[in-house]
Amino acid sequence: MSFSVIGAVAIYKREMMRAFRTAFQSILAPVLTTSLYFIVFGSAIGSRMPAIGGVEYAAFIIPGLLMLTLLGETTSNSSFGIYMPRFTGTIYELLSAPIGVAETLIGFVGAAATKSLILAAIILGTASLFVDYQIKYPLLALGYIMLVAASFSLFGFILGIWADSFEKLGIIPVLILTPLTFLGGTFYSLDMLPAPWNTIALLNPIAFLVSGLRWTFYGTSDVSIGVSLGLTLGFLAICVSVIAFIFKTGWRLRE
Amino acid sequence: MSDTVLSLSGLTKVYSGGTKALDGVDLDIRRGEIFALLGPNGAGKTTLIGAVCGLVRPTSGTMTAFGHDLATDWRPARARIGLVPQELSTDMFETVWRAVSYSRGLFGHPKNAARIEEILRSLSLWEKKDSQIRELSGGMKRRVLIAKALSHEPDLLFLDEPTAGVDVELRKGMWDQIAALRERGTTIILTTHYIEEAELMADRVGVIRKGRILMVDDKDSMMEQLGNTEAIIELAEPLADLPEAVTAFPVELREDGREICYRGGSGEGGGRAEVAELTKALIRAGIDYTGIDIHDSSLEDIFVDLVGGNDGQGDAA
Questions:
Q1: Which string of DSSP letters, residue by residue, matches B146-203?
Q2: How far is A64 from chain B (nearest CA, A)?
Q3: For the segment A191-200, what is each residue's pLDDT rounded down to a tens digit?
């Protein structure tokens, strides 16, 4: 099976350019939201909260806040990247080009994941303005963020192919990802919840993502890092299979 | 077979709704020719192009381009095929330069600023290279789409209704472009509503209707075979019946006997000579006339005859 490096690079560069065109919005918005969260939850409320597991509250919420923005932005960014060509009709060019699933994914998903990594760096930078925090396992944290960014870029890609309206495009991040992240222990440790809610909370897959990232930051977590990692990898594998299926059958792409 | 760049055999497409857009199409496209695909709306022109270019998955049949099976070995084939779609689908916020450069990369060609400049200049887009596409007029957007398709130097170019919605002057410019491409050896398949366009540009014409190719022929021989001559002879005095002298000709009496209408000459274009004979016969019979209006049927007339009363509507495009 052949692979067109030039083709993949062309898509990747164009997708990155698209982000720079809206750089103001894509950088300033997360900086602003993260700052607001830190002002409200970190400083105002956090100063009255006890440390959780030996971690100061304002620092405790960093991984959760990071995950919150990362999941939402990655998914909508990636879904938009493939939805827009479908919407405007410019996808004809992509479909008629001598490129396959690998180039398309590296181009679209790679760019979305890259943007997410930049975003993560911006959020962590913003956080450091408000809180003193140290990352216990920086490399693991980076690896984990990359894994999440890649998985949800793939997920967003699927969403962008599935959606046939702007409404559907927005529905998943707003109605599913954000609530689940909020409930997934962004602002609290799951064992602070009364029974049976602490158990029910484990039905929320995003709780595992937040917990896993928090472990790489502070070495403490609600669930074991192995489970979080396994779950994320499983999600990644599912997304890859779905996309392979989409390209094989041409679902929503080729009539 | 090296002279055939594209070969379709038994190509059939049934859409999920049950519409049969292509019904066993067999078609061979020769290297370097301009082939015009004519047909009413919904005849299957765009579906045919979509199938070759990878936008539509054929239900059955085989397609071979440049010796590569398009179902299995599509990469090398698609790299050599360019497509200018009917819809003005462009990246509205992208600049002309970047949009065209992107297309080149997408099709696997390394950067070549000189080549892009040459293409933009030839399409009179150079002054607009840094403009966002949304700022351009419809005709310019169409040319951007052409530039995008040319950016990867295709050997086979599909132009789906290239001059739809383009004003007369620009249309002429477009024809010049197409002629220039052919000079370079590019094979061109175009669909069009403007029969004048096919008549002017094409080497061969294929007529498609309801997903079937009705006929494919050299334009000239198609006109020779199917073309006919129509002559209207205005009589000095109205006639009650056709004079015996001219009943051997394919003529009829019209307008209350004030006109004789001749329609014939199918085949070797012998219509005009026959009209000359007809007039002599009239004179011999002592019938005077005041005027003759004669014209050869155009491709348009042939097309209308072939396609019949445009009942293709309701089919998929």
A1: HHHHHTT--SEEEEESTTTT--HHHHHHHHHHHHHHHHTT-EEEEEES-HHHHHHH-S
A2: 35
A3: 888 888 888 8
Looking at residues B246-264, what average pLDDT do you find?
85
Tokens 């979080």 locate to: A228
Q: How confident is the model at residue A19 (pLDDT cuts 50, 70, 90)?
A: confident
Q: A11 CB near a chain B CB, below 8 Å? A: yes
DSSP string, A70-109: HHHHHHHHHHHHHHHHHHHSTHHHHHHSS--HHHHHHHHH
Query: B2 or A58, which is more confident?
Result: A58
SS3 state of residue A1: coil
Residue in B53, B98, B108 nearest the CB of A96:
B53
- A92, B108: Cβ pair inside 8 Å? no
B215/chain A closest Cα distance in angstroms: 27
CA of A74: how far to CAs of A15, A139, B63, B99, B300, in Å? 13, 21, 40, 25, 55
Report chain A residues whose CB lies below 8 A from the CB of B74. Answer: 98
From chain A, the residues in CB contact with B98 under 8 A are 14, 17
Give the Cα-Cα-Cα angle A93, A97, A103 (nearest 5 degrees).
110
Q: How many whole angstroms separate alpha carbon A184 and alpha carbon A206? A: 6
The reply to whether residue B55 touches residue A14, judged by beta carbons under 8 angstroms, is no
Contact between B294 and B229 (Cβ < 8 Å) = yes
B316 pLDDT more than 90: no
Closest listed residue to residue B223, CA positions, set B262, B265, B189, B190: B265
A92 interfaces chain B, CB cutoff of 8 Å: yes
Nearest CA in chain A to B55: A254
Side-chain half-sphere CA neighbours of B259 within 13 A? 13
Interface ipTM: 0.88
Q: Is A10 on the interface with B (CB under 8 A)?
A: yes
What are residue A60's phi and psi, to 5 degrees?
Answer: -55, -40
Over residues B19-38, the mean pLDDT reads 94
